[in-house]
Every structure is written in C-alpha cells, then in structure tokens.
Design a protein that fits this description.
Order of helices and strands: HHHHHHHHEHHHHEHHHHHHHEE
Number of strands: 4
Largest sheet: 2 strands, antiparallel
Number of domains: 1
CATH class: Mainly Alpha
Radius of gyration: 24 Å
Distance between the termini: 45 Å
CATH architecture: Orthogonal Bundle
Strand order of the largest sheet: 1-2
CATH topology: ABC transporter involved in vitamin B12 uptake, BtuC
Helix content: over 70%
Structural class: mainly alpha
C-alpha cells in the first residue's frame, strides 16, 4: 500500500495509537479553521517545530543510545542562520535558502568534530563534553553582538507572502481570511510532514537497524564487523542536520531569534521530557509527546485559573489551584505519565496490542530433516 510505503512499513501497530495519530494530524492540518486565534496558531506552530526537533534527538537517544546535551546548539544554529542571512540580505527566499544552507554546513562540521573527538568517550563523560559545547556556543552567541545581536537577538522580516500583512484573497475561505501568517503555518506543516517521513525512512533502513543494534550492545555490533564509531558519528550528524532544520522553521515563524529562544538549556530539558512522555525509540512518540507537552504547557495556566475561580469558596483549594503553581501541576502530570507509561505513550499503546508469542514447536514433531546449529553455515542431522 502507498501508506505503508510512506510510513516505511513502520505503522502504528495499534488501533488506538493510529486513531490518536490521525486526530493529531487532522488537528494540525485544519488548526487555523478549527481553533481560530493567535495563541492557538502559535501553539500549533511550536508543536510542528518540536516534533522535528524531538524526533531528531530521538534518533540519537532512542535509536542509537547516545545522550547528548548539545542538541539545542544545532537548533540555535539553524535559527541564527536564517536570522543573520535575513538581517544582512533583507527579506527574501534567497536569504532563507542561503542561511539554511550555511547553518547546515556549520552543523555538519561541528557534529563531525564532536563525533570524531568525543564519541569514543563513554556514558556520562560524552554527555559532559556535549554540555560544554552547548554552553560555549550559547556564550559565544551572546557575546558576538555585531553578528548575532547579543542578548537582544535579531528581529528580521520574511518574504512578503509570509508576512501577516499579505492577503491571498479578500474572500474568506471557510470563514477564514488566508493571510501570510496562515501560509507560513502551512509551510511549516508541509516541512514537518516531509522531515518526519524522512526520519521514518532512516530509522527503518538497514542503517537504522544497525543503530538499534549498537544501542542494544555496541560491543557485539563491533564484533560482527560494524564500525560503531562511524555509525554513531553518522547518526550524530543526521540528528544535528534535522535539528538545524527545526531551528530554521522556528526562526521563519517567529521572525526573531535570540540566545534564550533556541539555545536555552530549558529547551533541552523540554526535549528530554517529551522524549520520555512520547516514548524513546519511536518517531511517533515525538509527535504525540510534543502535542501533549506543549498543549499542557500553554493551556495549563488557563485551566488552573478556571478551576481556581470555580472553588473560590474553599481558600486552601483555590490557593492550591492557583495559576502561579502551574509548574507544580505540570511536574505532577509528568511524574504520573512516567509512572503509568514507563515506556512512553506509544510504547504502552503498542504493548497493549502486542500479540502473544506462540509456544515453540518441538523439532521432532515437524519432521524436518535438518536444523541449523548455532554455528553459522553448519547443519546437524536429527536423530
């Protein structure tokens, strides 16, 4: 089927999961018509960006077993590439294209350097090295004010067709005026879909199977002939390139970039939380985790404000449900999600539908003449 090919033969494998993914896709595809408003549109656009960012990080953590804290560095490089090019060259598609290409080239070089010099380092030591890289780059971006705008960042313009003042038609379509902001959103939506399908193709290719083998036992993968350092380096580079594209997407949407926007360590923590919530080693987990986390992060204060007003007669409960304590409730929701979904939402839903393996059939009952021995290429006659 065409759908199986698009998904690289890696379907949801659960009806509930498939239904959730379809609802998420439809909600994002028709968001401007279903949930009008600037805040809802901004949340949906951020979900699209984080789906790509989290999926690219899961290529490292979930599929290769690499814990890196430098992922936001590549995210920031992509955003700064578009921002600097658009500031120097002016609004235009050429600036977006050139800025993205330069950012991809820089991310490639840095990811290759980290891979060659650091991927031989084990466990927590590698994580500390990547954290040092990320901290150094954030400091550099803050101090190079002539190039990056320093702490104030860079504000720039996009091509006219993507600007809010552009109107495609004066006649509303399904009650909505199609302006440049809506067109920019659908540019992000199309880019997100293409990049997610590309990541599905990568993780379900022979290359992706080797990455999973390295994650499970890198010494065994090395023993059977795979160059573990090479595969881990390539995985690091691919992950960095996709994160760079996610950063470019965010810059195009915000028309602004600064150190706190893309290089903050809080973003790295959010990515880690989303990976755990959605499920490591699943591209679908990045989509579901991003949707759940960002919607909760954006609307939890509003829900708490309504709940606090509803129980105003109980001062202690109203104080507990105060919008100022939204981080407390968000943390509680995260703890509960980890407790009830230890393998993430996707892992849990797939486990519910996992088929029960059939008991092994004795070899003598099959009437087979020969069976393979543990040594490859040798056969032992049955008695």
């Amino acid at each position: 089927m065409i759908l199986d090919r698009l998904l690289s033969n890696d379907g949801p494998r659960s009806r509930v999961l498939a239904a959730i993914l379809v609802l998420l896709l439809l909600a994002l595809a028709f968001q401007p018509f279903l949930f009008p408003g600037i805040k809802a549109l901004n949340v949906a656009a951020k979900v699209l960006v984080f789906i790509v960012l989290v999926a690219s990080f899961d290529l490292l953590l979930g599929y290769t077993g690499i814990v890196s804290f430098a992922h936001t560095m590549f995210f920031g490089i992509g955003a700064y590439g578009v921002a600097i090019a658009s500031t120097r060259m002016g609004a235009g598609w050429a600036a977006i294209g050139l800025g993205t290409l330069v950012a991809l080239a820089l991310s490639f070089v840095l990811a290759l350097a980290i891979g060659l010099f650091s991927l031989r380092v084990r466990a927590i030591f590698f994580s500390m090295i990547t954290l040092a890289f990320a901290a150094a780059f954030q400091t550099l971006a803050s101090q190079l004010s002539d190039l990056t705008g320093g702490e104030d960042g860079l504000t720039f313009r996009m091509p006219e067709v993507l600007s809010p003042g552009f109107t495609l038609s004066e006649t509303p379509f399904l009650g909505l005026t199609i302006n440049g902001r809506i067109l920019c959103y659908y540019l992000l939506f199309a880019t997100c879909v293409v990049l997610v399908l590309a990541l599905l193709r990568i993780v379900n290719s022979p290359f992706g199977r080797v990455l999973q083998a390295i994650r499970e036992n890198e010494f065994r993968a090395e023993a059977i002939g795979y160059r573990v350092v090479v595969y881990r380096t390539i995985s690091s580079i691919l992950s960095a390139l996709f994160a760079t594209l996610a950063g470019a997407m965010l810059a195009i949407w915000l028309r602004y970039n600064g150190p706190d926007t893309t290089l903050s360590f809080e973003i790295m923590l959010d990515v880690l939380l989303i990976v755990v919530i959605g499920g490591m080693g699943t591209i679908y987990g990045a989509a579901i985790g991003s949707g759940l986390f960002l919607v909760a992060q954006s609307y939890l204060q509003d829900l708490l404000r309504l709940a606090s007003g509803a129980v105003a007669g109980l001062p202690w409960l109203a104080a507990l449900l105060s919008p100022d304590r939204w981080l407390l409730w968000l943390g509680l929701l995260f703890v509960l999600s980890v407790y009830y979904f230890p393998t993430g939402v996707v892992g849990r839903l797939r486990a519910l539908r996992a088929p029960v393996p059939a008991p092994p059939v004795p070899l003598a009952a099959t009437g087979a003449a020969a069976s393979p021995s543990p040594v490859q290429g040798e056969y032992v006659e049955n008695s």
